[in-house]
Amino acid sequence: MAILNDEHNLPDDLRALQVEIEGHARDFGLDFYDTIFEVLDYDELSEIAALGGFPTRYPHWRFGMEYEQLSKGYRYGLQKIYEMVINNDPCYAYLLRCNQWVDQKLVMSHVYGHNDFFKNNIWFSLTNRKMMDEMANHGNRIRSAMERHGEETVENFIDSCLSLENLIDLHSPFIKRRDENSRYDFADQAEPQSTVTRFQSKDYMDAYVNPPGAMREQARQQEADRQKAKPFPEQPERDVLLFLLEHAPLNAWQRDVLDIVRQEAYYFAPQGQTKIMNEGWASFWHSTIMTTKTLHPSELVDYADHHSGTMATQPGRLNPYKLGIELFRDIEERWDKGRFGREYDDCDNYEERRRWDRGLGLGRAKIFEVRRIHNDVTFVDTFLTPDFCRRHQLFSFKHNDQAETYEIESREFKKIKERLLFGLTNFGQPIIRVRDGNYRNRGELYLHHEHFGIDLKLDHAQDTLRHLHRLWTRPVHIETNADGRTTLFSFDGTDHTIRPLGGSSHDLEPKDRRRGG
Hints:
This protein is an alpha+beta fold and 517 residues long. It has 4 domains: 6-121 and 274-294, no CATH class; 133-172 and 236-272, no CATH class; 312-424, no CATH class; 430-516. It has 20 helices and 11 strands. The protein has helices at 12-27, 42-50, 61-75, 101-120, 131-149, 151-163, 206-209, 212-229, 240-247, 252-273, 275-294, 300-311, 320-337, 342-346, 350-355, 363-373, 376-383, 386-391, 413-424, 458-472; strands at residues 35-40, 83-86, 91-96, 396-400, 405-410, 431-439, 444-450, 476-482, 485-491, 495-500, 513-516. A 6-stranded mixed beta sheet has the order 6-7-8-9-10-11, covered by helices on one side. Strands 1-3-2 form a 3-stranded mixed beta sheet. Strand 2 and strand 3 (91-96) form a beta hairpin. The longest helix is centred in the middle third of the chain and has 22 residues, at 252-273. The protein is globular. The two termini are 37 Å apart.
């Protein structure tokens, strides 16, 4: 399904506005891909938003569900999408046809901030820059599979793959986790030295004393024993989808679908890793360009209203736009005034710190450096300061089970930072690794959950095991910590079981608790 056509080309007035704002963005030092703007009405924009920003994707019911949610939210006045921008070369961005003129200015300025971030941030550097074409290719491949194997069969398999799409190794594009072995690389594949027991004999008696068939069987058994003793995988594998691609008993079309889901998961991953930075950077530049270059006095009130709406923080929710823009502004001010380094950190006089200004003027260069090398975790870890938390009245909160409400937990800087980093690490989702692909020599899949104080949600864990079983076709297990005790969740295709572990993993106590699957 292709949505875009010539009707969505920019009219002359918007094209002139694009040229103007692009010039301002370049003057400020932004470096971006060529940008193609398309003008859509809200139904078209909702459809593209439901497809993740791409005009063509593979068919799946979740896209229709997301479209219904977006379109109803707009009709009921609950939400409005002002723009969308895609990490691609050239960069595609969509404008809402009914936007006010001041909104079109704001959106274009915002888009150039995103475009610069996509091109220059290191966490996007290994993403596919032709993903617009690749998504269309993915759609064609899956439609072809549906024609051959049935729409419902393929869609149900996609459901399982999408349920597991977060089981990837976010840092693997930049870290060599294992050696890449080629089937044509024979240099390191020397035959292991034979340890088959042979009895001394005369040459003419050797075939009787050391029967060749018995020797071959002994060698085969020794090789089987070596393979059995070899860990599989050799190291715990965090990229669960890759492990399934390489070792699960999948048909060719299933392997292709899983590969597509994995590729798209890695494409979208940097957007989740840099949500605060990316939105903060784009907001910083739309604010700068609007207030210093393009905003007409008659548009001030509308701009302030819409900008403040974007920056507004709802109770109990973190607004990445607000936190990101304020941190970038804080970094620029600190490096302009020299509020960093040992001398400043050692100063304990509040008034002196408040008036501190060395006139260094390094702020603009510093925020461009930050934009280039950080993600949200390192951004918050490095630049969130006690002064920033006090000035913006940040606090951590938790749920009071007795009062059945959320309440302030702490205003201490350490606790606030811990809560932020905990929620940002791996998107706040559990870290799962494949520990054994041949558990107890029965071809069962054994995974391990790295426990950081938060137990797995039982229903989510059981759903994950069920979808893993669909791909692995053998019983699957996940070791975790539940209620302070090491526990094994298992699914054999019929029943879910919960088994407390003994002194070491893989040593199970005889009793278990069963839950129907």
